[in-house]
Amino acid sequence: MRIPRTERIKEVFPKLSDDSVAEWIADFKQIDELIWRVASCGGASKLGRAKVADVFSQQFAWLSGMGLKTALSRSDYFAWHEGYDKAPPDPARLTELFGSDDSA
To answer: How far is residue 49's CA from residue 59's CA, in Å, rounded to a whole number?
Structure first.
């Protein structure tokens, strides 16, 4: 059984306020949602890792280094696992992600 994120954060950062932990959890949920949106379009490798990294950086300026690499890798894994990497991306999803449908 996994230890909930809230407990893990509090263990590592015991002085962090409950409000700050809640903000972090909200950010993590938004990142998870973006990872799945990227995956549903084929993953970072299919769409272009640099271009997808820019999308993450625009929405989460603080996400960099290992965290960014992990987000990109997770999008590729989920795309592969769900078969999105083999299907043509949905133009509407590309528009949502990049602002235009000519990104793939």
So the answer is: 16
